Amino acid sequence: MSELKNCSGETYPVFATGKVNGCSVVQSAVPYGSVWYLKVNICGKDGEAVSAPVPGQFYMLRSVPSGLLLARPISVYNSRKLSDSSVCIEFLILLKGKGSKELVTLESGDEVELLGPLGNSWPVPAENSKVLCIGGGVGVAPIAGFAVTLPKKSYDFIAAFKSGSYGLDYIFPEKLTITTDDGSVGIKGMVTAAIDCESVRQYSAVYACGPVPMLAAVQKICGEAGVECWLSMENRMACGVGACLGCTIKTKEGNKRCCKDGPVFNSKILDFERIDSPVTSPKTPKRQPLAQTEEPDLRVKIAGVEFANPVFAASGTFGYGSEYSSVIDVDSLGGICSKGLTFEGQPGNEGVRLIETPMGLINSIGLENPGIKHFIENELPLMQKFKAKTIVNLSGKSLETYVEGAKLLDKTDAPMIELNISCPNVKAGGMAFGMEPKAAASVVDAVRKATKKPLMVKLSPNAPDLIGVAMAVKEAGADAISLVNTFQATAINIETGRPYFENIRAGFSGPAVKPIALRMVYDLCLAMNRLPEDQRIPVVGLGGIATWEDAVEFIMAGASAIEVGTATFANPLAMNEIIQGIKKFMARKGFKTIEDFRGSAL
Question: How is residue 375 annotated by DSSP?
Fold first, then answer.
């Protein structure tokens, strides 16, 4: 990792692997375990010189190995040269998502990938001037890293937190002021409780980093006081070097890249009204959390059938329930969609049936099943012993076999049929019926006449006119729609030069499809909402759902319930965890029922 500079004397970022020199929880952060120290040593190859970051810069970090696609931008809290060929960099990490969770679980000796140092730096104050440094939350890290380079007592420092305090280990201000929202440390209140226009006028410049609302308030105060102000901004990043333009923010001088033009900006060019998007800004009214004695009601009703909660096992991934009964609490699920069933049993596809991909799974099972008669006599009684409601997934090779299967199921006490016109793994029937509106309507109409049971139609994401198909099956008698089934995909054996699957194409599922599936569910729910209320039918969302956060997204997109499939293979407890996660989320957000937040994103 040799140090390279351009013609302006700026250090080029480099990609290197560092070793963890320590990872520990910040004891004074509240809640405990929310903020961590991470120290990483970087050494140059064969004794080559290593560049040290300057105050205000950051690195893109990712653990080795990692389950994530992207590294995470983390500001430098402190750094020191160990020798000409090695440097120790210290980071403050807020435990927030998957990326930070990976980083804070590292141990000494573990490896970390780093790209950096990146971004610009804090402007050096005029000699003998007095400045004010302000850090909010974990934003205290880059501002404290800057304060370390200033002469002792040549600056005042304000640190604002929700509760507790941290990140002040290395600073030596003339005056340190701490504010906390709950009053646990220092002054009770936000940063505005510690500064105003009059108090700011004593400084030649103000430097700040923290949450956007705090920075907007600092900008306003400094503007009114006529004091120069520098703010460190943050945004989601992919490359970190200015290539992808994914981290741009709107300014009075046009779009600026946080990673390359920033992260430090003169506050005069920042327009926080434009940075705060009217689409992505919070619009759902805040509620008080539910009382500890109050349980959120997770019950949902779909086509007249009441389910204990909105989490269903997806067809083809959970068998008939009993297969997983010794592993998870099957009774806790809202529903179980049976394996896809055809009128006559069938053996499924020949050859390779499964190929794992990054964050996904391609399957070519081919609807292997014992047939509906065998199911009614053997598997159905076992399914109905569970508290979770039984949903029978009905498929077919022809219109006639769909109808005959529906007639047999109509005589049972199964509460609901999921009509599968979307399976991509069969040569006849399945997805062929769901690709265009007229064909989809014909099979739904025929099955509707063969059974009085609630009919949920499972649609394919591969249909060119998905909304058209959905509206057609609704008009033909569907009581609900489940969306999406798997996406068509393929895989090639590079040793033989031939496709792995006998049918060439197969069904792709897993976390990788979730954003596309979510968009399709969103679009369909939006279309449903444009209809008169008495003409709408429920939508059950599925496709890549692996966590309770995923499930909440689908419900906020308008889904009345969700199905979980491939995630169960990776984590058999996924559905139980999703149910508990939804329950805790609702209690925290003050939602008493699923309807309190269903469709909030539409």
Answer: I
